[in-house]
Each structure stands twice: as structure tokens, then as C-alpha cells.
Write a structure and sequence with these properties.
alpha+beta; 5-stranded antiparallel β-sheet
Amino acid sequence: MIHMWAFLDLPDRDRIYYRDGEKLSREAVFNWVKSAAKLNECELLLFDCELYRYDSGSGKFIRTNWYNLEWESD
């Protein structure tokens, strides 16, 4: 299975990354992606077609709905 992700609130948000998950579980790949997102101070993450927002109170990425986001115009 191929896992795909994008960091939506970083300058390169148009870039989509992927990793072959044949040897790794979805959870292992997702944990790796979350670590990379935190390292890059990303707060909005798209992983396997699901949207996650970083909750600073809990220190975790929480699955969220597109309709719950407030987009700022550029």
C-alpha cells in the first residue's frame, strides 16, 4: 500500500509525498509523518486523504473535517 501526505500550511504545500508501506504499517508511516510535521512546525496535515490539525493543548494531531477549518486568503 502506498501512503501519501502533504503539509498544507508550509510554503511547499503543493508538494505531495509518498512512501511504500509494504514493509511498514500505516501506523508506523503515520507516526513518522507526524514527527516530520512537528519538526517543520506544520499544523495542518493531509495523510491518506484524511485531514489532521495539530492541537497544541494535547500535543497531538486530531482528525478534522474540511468544513471545520477557517481558511485565510493569501
